[in-house]
Amino acid sequence: MTKRTVYALVLSLLAAVASAQDYPIVPVPFTSVAINGGFWQSRLATNRTVTIPFDFRKCEETGRIANFAVAGGLAKGTFKGKRYDDSDVFKVVEGASYSLQTHYDPKLDHYLDSLITLFAAAQEPDGYLYTIRSILKDSANIKDDQAGPTRFSYVAGSHELYNVGHMYEAAVAHFQATGKRSFLNVALKNADYLMRTIGPDKLIVVPGHQEIEIGLVKLYRVTKDKRYLDFARFLLDMRGRADKRPLFPDPAKTGQGASYLQDHIPVTQQKTAVGHSVRAGYMYAAMSDIAAIQNDKAYMDALLAIWNDVVERKQYLTGGLGARGHGEAFGEAYELPNDVAYAETCAAVANMLWNHRMFLLTGDAKYMDVFERVLYNGFLAGVSLEGDSFFYVNPLASDGKRKFNVGQAATRAPWFGTSCCPTNVVRFLPSLPGYVYATKGNDVFINLFLTNQSTVSVNGKPVQIRQETNYPWDGKVSVTVQPKQPQAFTMQLRLPGWASGKPMPGYLYEYVNTTAKAPVLLVNGKSVSYETENGYARVSRTWRPGDRLEWTLDMPVREVKANEQVTDDRHKVAIERGPVVYCAEGVDNGGQALSLVVPAGTAFRPQMQPDKLGGILSLSAQEAGKNVTLIPYYAWSHRGPNEMSVWFGQVKPTK
Ligand SMILES: [Zn+2]
């Protein structure tokens, strides 16, 4: 090859990399968005100062970190805990890495270095990493029969591939935060080993718990090495293909059947949400990545069908997924019990990851409507205001006695034998600023309303955007735009479903007895008309430094009814205001919540209570001579176990 052809080849490779297809809409990274006030500032600060160190301490106390040292021969001891505990440590490292990017802390940086030394030591020479097996060896020593006697002998239950999926996500976050390759090298060595071992004409297996697929896509993005992407796709495509897996045809050993782990039919033929809801949610998120990067219509069609099934039939008003404790699974259509609801906190995180990706694929605001509903309700309830206790299970009703929180308590608990949820909260919260804005060419999307200062690149030019709002207590949002010079572009402000008459996309829930005023948009104090498209108000103009948008969303208290087919919500009403779902707690209502009656048209009075439950807007009303007080659902269970209900009867029950 001549010098010139080499040069041309390099150029064409660079061009290929530059134009590598991905989501058509690009999220503005969380590092460009500083949350500097409002509702979320204190929650993010608590995550950084309390939850991250708390989760690391728990990982130390429970032997999760020592397992790496023992596996690596750096300490004596035996394996402690469960086969999937490695993943918890990786998830806290992921959260800590995000935190480092926005709040550098040399002590934390060094602590992460020390953990990565342990991870590297625990990695076997060929790249395999799974501390339970490295410590106990391939033998009858492994009492946890779900781990399988030898490598990959029981991937349906071993979490061998799940664990490393979280490692890939954490390693990419650490590399991006610090520029150090130490952890990324461990991750790549592991992925390379897996690709030498598993694949077409090699061992054909699929992970029992999806997650590695999301991690592999992140490895692909950071390395631009397409093999990681192909491997993710291979693992997805082999689901439901027992015919291709003669050695491991059937995941029946889980006792749940193939649909439990979405392995019953090929992913492109799946049209309904079934099985374990966290596994499903991670799979749908990974499928969205493949649909975007490979422009795959079959994947997209499956995702659209499954999404419709979820929002029309299987989602709680809080955005929670997974009705059943048994199998931590989706129920049948309209099976949405309130007291025994499972709605795992991890499923809430998975639901947000998936819906954000669907927005990036389509530009439709309805996905961010679901995201917001999960965020302020089903997800946020998962962690206490103090940041050191958690819900694994998020019911919509409680008698205050049943230990619904995986048998531990009728309230939040500091930790669990399976602690996936505390470690999912800790990694999600610091990434929240990354869900606020997105761009596509000349368009800037504003998806979440929260106080922040950010820099958004519009057609390659930096534009500063400042949002100020008292959301979610007040629907007034002020947006100040600072381009360097006057610049023509389009602002797309999300017009939330709740502000245009729909609590959730689809027909599972609807507002009754109430109306809201139309949203009002002002530019520099003057009312402007706007067109709406895909759930966004579009404003195209030449923006000048200091131009100010004011977006006012009316926030009346609203009654919600569920589709008649949801038998558990029949003849009942729930109360919302803006994106926030309310509940009654016994402690505010003479010890009772489950028997409270809210007749149609009850007039609730909103009242800001800065000193109650971290600052909430409560709702109160007089009903049959008694005072009824409601609080945001996310804030419940901070005053001891007691009755709670989201849905209320409309007439007194006859005994
Ligand atoms: Zn969980």
TrEMBL record:
Regions that span the bilayer: none
Domain called Non-reducing end beta-L-arabinofuranosidase-like GH127 middle: residue spans: 444-555
Pfam families: Beta-AFase-like_GH127_cat, Glyco_hydro127C, Glyco_hydro127M
Taxonomic superkingdom: Bacteria
Biological process annotations from GO: carbohydrate metabolic process
Record flagged with keyword Signal: yes
Non-reducing end beta-L-arabinofuranosidase-like GH127 C-terminal domain sequence ranges: 557-648
Non-reducing end beta-L-arabinofuranosidase-like GH127 catalytic domain mapped to chain residues: 32-433
Keywords for the protein's UniProt record, in alphabetical order: Signal
InterPro entries: 6-hairpin_glycosidase_sf, Beta-AFase-like, Beta-AFase-like_GH127_C, Beta-AFase-like_GH127_cat, Beta-AFase-like_GH127_middle
Name listed for the protein in its UniProt record: DUF1680 family protein
Protein source organism: Spirosoma fluviale
